[in-house]
Amino acid sequence: MNITLQELQKATNNFDVSYEVGGGGHGVVYKGLLNLQVVAIKKSKIIVQREIDDFINEVAILSQVNHRNVVKLLGCCLETEVPLLVYEYITNGTLAHHLHVEGPISLPWDDRLRIAFEISKALAYLHSAASTPILHRDIKSSNILLDDNLVAKVSDFGASKYIPMDQTGVTTAVQGTFGYLDPMYYYTSRLTNKSDVFSFGVLLVELITRRKPFAYRSDDGEGLVSHLTSLLAEGRLVEIIDPQIMEEGAEQVNEVAALAVKCTKLNGEDRPTMREVEMTLENLRGTNRRDATTSRRNYDRDQSAVSYWSSLELNIETSRQYTMEVEMVLSATLPR
Question: Residue limits of the Protein kinase domain (predicted)?
């Protein structure tokens, strides 16, 4: 749906600063009221060809996608040099915010396991059920939005790629986020569906540890994935697991950790497909019969209302540019 600039100016009081709900160096997200519907409007600050290409790419991708766990693109405005994108407004912020909130209480284990399952369903759909296979290329906790019921919505398709039906991947410039990036893609520029699997595996590690993949270093200098892999092999997983999960008596933590290790194998061919990951998580959820009412109540009580978009945050986590220094860090922290 094409939306006029005048309509968006009216919806945001001419993009007044009081309507801003997220953003960073690349752009701003505004909350607005459009045709009696609350929407999120993504507006770029930077007028460069890459930004234009990313916005157009996102329109092309999301116009072909219809899945309950993928954020809905409602329309765009083509009257500006960089298109303005209009999405459904997701009220509960990002998964990153909920995981890394200050204090000991985060999302209950039951919700974390369900959110992981929902993300896996969305990625399996993008890889195999969409009209043309789509690789997201930037899966991370800050690109997962949560609605009022904490239902996951995959967002930010600016870096995504179509893959021809008769091909298993494409050779392309490296994009993604340090900490979540598939090392084989980084070294070879060969993007496949297993690149998303790697990023999802890192996200699983983040869900069970509440550690930030792009910032974590063990005492021995290992990155988050490498350290968890070592601890799992040594039977010492409890040393890195989020204490809240242990206090809840959460089941299936070892199985989820083992799945994360499989997803983050260095060789992409050794990783499962997202459909296989989805089926594994579905089976794990089926065995998780614990009543999560109490832990959800504790979490809800400890949370203040969150109502913002942060998919455009600009910090070390969201950088898609790589240097020789980063390559050295990757080389030092990823198993070979």
Answer: 15-281
pTM here is 0.85
Contacts of residue 203, defined as CB under 8 A and 6 or more positions apart, other chains included, come to 116, 119, 139, 140, 141, 144, 180
Residue 69 pLDDT: 97
Predicted pLDDT of residue 243: 93
CA dihedral 183, 188, 189, 190 (to 10 degrees): -90
Structure tokens at 155: 């967002």
Both tokens of 227, joined, read: 């350290």
DSSP classification of residue 230: H
Q: Looking at per-residue confidence, does 25 or 143 come out higher?
A: 143
Active site residues: 138
CA 311 to chain centre: 9
Where residue 104 falls (left for φ over 0; alpha for ψ -120 to 50; beta otherwise) is alpha
**CATH assignment of 103-304, among 3.55.40.20, 1.20.1640.10, 3.40.50.150, 1.10.510.10:** 1.10.510.10
User: Backbone dihedral region of 2: left (phi > 0), alpha (psi from -120 to 50 degrees) or beta?
Assistant: beta
Lowest mean pLDDT among 94-98, 233-237, 306-310: 306-310
For residue 217, the one-letter residue type is R
At 317, the amino acid letter reads: E
274-295 pLDDT per residue, tens? 999 999 999 999 876 554 555 5
Query: Which fold is adopted by the domain 5-88?
Result: Phosphorylase Kinase; domain 1 (3.30.200)
